[in-house]
Amino acid sequence: MNLVSIRLITDNVAALVAFYERALQTTATWSTDDFAEVRTTTGTEGGVASGTLAIGSTRTVGLFGPGAARPADNHTAIIEFLVDDVDALYEQLRVWVSDVVTVPTTMPWGNRSLLVRDPDGTLVNFFTPVSPEAVAKFAVQR
Q1: Which of 1, 6, 96, 109 is the most exposed place for a label (fewest CB within 10 A)?
Q2: CA–CA separation, 55 vs 52, rounded Å?
Q3: pLDDT at 104 (0 to 100)
Q4: What is the rounded distance in angstroms from the CA atom of residue 23 to the CA atom of residue 4?
């Protein structure tokens, strides 16, 4: 099996997509007004897809079964993004992200993490490995 994507359900697809496009400095791929995908990449220009955040409208929930998902109701998951320099990213995000939960902090497991909430309240962790163990785990070139 291969994890293909994480999907967020929202009442405002455009706002949520705009948040992730700006935070990740990328452009989403729209399939319809009710569905878009934000892909992250690794490698050189163009890169290789490494993760996909799918964003769907509440209008699509009925396709999965009535009440299968509720927008802006996540209190169990954290979406995590590996970044080159979390401190530099914080300087960029802090001027426009309205809900910073934790400023860049080095965690006991060796990652320096910045936690924010997206417009629907989902917790988002941007992190940079800093300990030798964390750097090795994520095969980061320093």
Answers
A1: 1
A2: 10
A3: 98
A4: 21
* SS3 at position 117: strand
**Is the per-residue pLDDT at 129 higher than 90?**
yes
CB atoms within 10 A of CB 125: 19
- pTM exceeds 0.85, yes or no: yes
The closest of 30, 26, 76 to 47, measured between CA atoms, is 26
Set out the domains of the chain in order of their start, with CATH numbers: 1-71 (2.60.40), 74-142 (3.10.180.10)
Q: What is the mean pLDDT of residues 41-70?
A: 81
What is the spatial distance between Cα 55 and Cα 61, in angstroms, rounded to a whole number? 12
Cα–Cα dist 114/139, whole Å? 20
Q: What token pair was written down for 37?
A: 């995908």
Q: Which of 12, 116, 127 is nearest to 71 (CA)?
A: 12
What secondary structure letter does DSSP report for 94?
A: T
pLDDT at 109: 97
